[in-house]
Amino acid sequence: MIFIAGVSPKTTVIDQTPRLCPNCGLAQARLQRVDHWLSFFFIPLLRVKKGDEFLFCNRCDHPVYESFTGKADAQNHYEDNCSGCSRALERDHLFCPYCGQPRQR
Fold this sequence. Notes:
Elements: E1 5-19, E2 29-40, E3 43-49, E4 53-57, E5 63-64, H1 71-77, E6 78-81, E7 88-90
Antiparallel strand pairs: 1-2, 2-3, 2-4, 4-5, 6-7
C-alpha cells in the first residue's frame, strides 16, 4: 500500500485592503502569509507552521518582508502631498501613483 503525504506551502491572503507597494508605488499590495500544511494525497489537513505576514504586490510581483505597520513608520514614509490630487506621496516617488502628475521639488 502506498501513501502520498508531505508538507507543502499554501499562500493565504489575510487582508484584501489594497496598500501602497514600496516598489512600484501603486495601491496593489495585499497582506499575505505563507503557511506550511501537512497534506495527505495532496489535501491539506493540518497546519504545521504559521508563516510571517508580508505585503505582496499583484502588479509588480514584489514581496515586502520588512515592517509595514505602525503609525510612526507610515508618517515617516511620506514626504509631502501631490500638487494635482493632494494625496500623500512617498519619498522615492517621482510621479504620483494616483493621478500621474510629476512631483514638485
